[in-house]
Backbone:
C-alpha cells in the first residue's frame, strides 16, 4: 500500500477503518489482521518464524542510531528499511560501515512514516523475485521476475518507479517498462503449501507472497506478504491474462 | 448482496473497478485516501453479515 508515490500514512487510516469495520461486525475480505501483517515487516517475519519458514534475519528498531546496534548482530552487507514499507520504498543496502556512517551522519537514512524500521541481513539470491498469488485457498497465479542489477526498489504489480541513491540501491524494477523480465512459473507443491499457510495465517482470502531462492541453501527465503498485489497492471501483456477477469471467473 | 470495495492504489484499482462494472457488479466504492466516516455509527449499509 504505501510507496514513494503515495502518502504512507494512509496505511494507518486504513488500519483504523478496518478495525472499526471489525468492531461493527462487517464481514471484510482481507480485513484488519491481513492489513496489519501486510503493512508490517516485523509481523511478517513473526509469521514466517511461526510457520517454520526461512526468512532474512532482521532486527527491529526505532532510532536511526540503533542501526549500529543491529549491524553488530547482522553484519555487512545489511539492508535498512522501514517497517511500514511498500514497493520497496526507502530500502537501502549498505556494504560497508563507512557508507552507513556517512548516511547516518548526513541524515540520509529514514525509517519511514512511523520511524520504525529493520536492519536485515542481505542474502544472495538466484537473481529472481518469485511471487505466488492465492485466491481463497487455491493458486491464483505465480510469476517470477528478474532482479535488475544495481537497482533495489521495485514494484512488479503497478510499475512504480522509486527515486533512490544509485550507489546503494539494488533492485529498482518496473514491470511495465520491461515486461520481458516478468514470467509465469510453475510453483512447486511444497512452496505452494508454504504460501497457502502464510496467507491463511494472515487471515487473508486473497494475497501474494514473495520469496527468492537462497543460493547457499537452494531453498526459498520468504520476505513479503502482500494482501494487495494480485492485480498486475496490464496483465494481458505481462501474463497473458487479466487477473481482474480471472478473479471474477474463478 | 451489498459489497463495498476499499481501494487506494491509483493503477491497480481502476482496472479492477472497471472489471466490476463490465461484469454488472454493483459495488460501493470507497477510496480510503478520501474516505471519512462517523466513528460512532455502528451500522453501515454495506454490511454483508446475514446477507
Residues:
Amino acid at each position: 500500500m504505501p510507496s514513494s508515490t503515495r502518502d504512507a500514512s494512509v496505511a494507518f487510516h486504513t488500519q483504523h477503518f478496518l478495525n472499526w469495520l471489525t468492531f461493527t461486525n462487517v464481514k471484510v475480505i482481507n480485513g484488519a489482521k491481513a492489513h496489519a501483517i501486510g503493512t508490517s515487516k516485523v509481523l511478517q517475519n513473526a509469521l514466517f518464524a511461526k510457520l517454520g519458514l526461512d526468512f532474512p534475519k532482521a532486527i527491529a528498531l526505532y532510532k536511526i542510531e540503533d542501526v549500529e546496534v543491529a549491524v553488530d548482530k547482522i553484519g555487512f552487507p545489511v539492508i535498512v528499511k522501514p517497517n511500514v514499507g511498500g514497493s520497496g520504498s526507502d530500502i537501502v543496502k549498505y556494504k560497508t560501515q563507512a557508507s552507513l556512517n556517512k548516511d547516518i551522519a548526513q541524515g540520509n537514512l529514514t525509517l519511514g512514516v512511523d520511524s520504525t524500521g529493520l536492519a536485515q541481513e542481505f542474502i544472495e539470491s538466484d537473481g529472481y523475485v518469485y511471487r505466488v498469488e492465492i485466491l481463497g485457498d487455491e493458486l491464483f497465479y505465480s510469476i517470477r521476475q528478474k532482479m535488475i542489477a544495481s537497482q533495489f526498489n521495485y514494484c512488479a504489480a503497478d510499475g512504480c518507479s522509486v527515486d533512490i541513491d544509485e550507489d546503494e540501491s539494488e533492485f529498482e524494477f518496473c514491470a511495465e517498462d520491461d515486461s520481458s523480465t516478468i514470467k509465469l512459473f510453475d510453483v512447486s507443491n511444497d512452496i505452494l503449501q508454504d504460501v497457502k499457510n502464510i496467507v491463511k495465517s494472515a487471515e487473508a482470502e486473497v494475497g501474494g507472497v514473495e520469496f527468492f531462492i537462497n543460493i547457499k541453501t537452494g531453498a526459498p527465503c520468504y520476505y513479503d506478504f502482500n494482501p494487495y498485489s494480485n492485480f498486475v497492471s496490464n496483465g494481458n501483456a505481462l501474463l497473458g491474462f487479466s487477473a481482474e477477469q480471472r478473479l471474477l471467473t474463478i | 448482496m451489498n459489497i463495498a470495495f476499499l481501494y487506494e492504489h491509483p493503477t491497480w484499482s481502476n482496472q479492477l473497478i472497471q472489471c466490476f462494472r463490465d461484469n454488472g457488479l454493483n459495488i460501493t466504492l470507497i477510496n480510503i485516501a478520501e474516505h471519512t466516516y462517523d466513528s460512532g455509527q455502528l451500522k453501515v449499509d454495506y454490511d454483508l453479515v446475514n446477507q
